[in-house]
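F.,

This is the one I mentioned.
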């Protein structure tokens, strides 16, 4: 496609290339961080997860703007604590969404986890696989 865009301004060329990739189904969710560790604690805690829609090569689909109801969920394996998120709605702006995961003041013990899951989504006729961000207490 780049030969067809000779003479087109670089920013527009990049934008058209990303949309062309999407039309071909080259889209995947990415959670950053995918995995993280935290020391066991009994204090309140938070962590921020950035969810992006990218190509297989890691280029951001910055054209993607959408509000996805029930786009994200949270689960944990704590025997005492509870992880939560403010909403299950995931709002993408320029290919990025942010979710803050919070844990209550309870005993978060070693090997316990909290898992943020981005649900699968159909975009432009292609099913984008679910992704997770997992925090493990050590």
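My design for it:
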């Amino acid at each position: 496609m780049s030969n067809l865009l000779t003479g087109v301004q670089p920013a527009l060329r990049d934008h058209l290339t990303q949309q062309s990739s999407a039309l071909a189904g080259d889209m995947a969710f990415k959670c950053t961080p995918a995995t993280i560790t935290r020391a066991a604690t009994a204090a309140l805690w938070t962590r921020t997860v950035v969810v992006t829609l990218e190509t297989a090569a890691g280029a951001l689909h910055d054209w993607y703007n959408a509000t996805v109801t029930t786009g994200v969920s949270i689960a944990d394996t704590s025997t005492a604590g509870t992880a939560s998120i403010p909403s299950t709605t995931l709002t993408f702006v320029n290919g990025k969404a942010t979710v803050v995961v919070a844990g209550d003041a309870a005993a978060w013990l070693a090997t316990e986890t909290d898992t943020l899951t981005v649900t699968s989504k159909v975009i432009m006729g292609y099913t984008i696989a679910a992704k997770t961000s997992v925090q493990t207490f050590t």
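The chain has a mean pLDDT of 91.

Talk soon.
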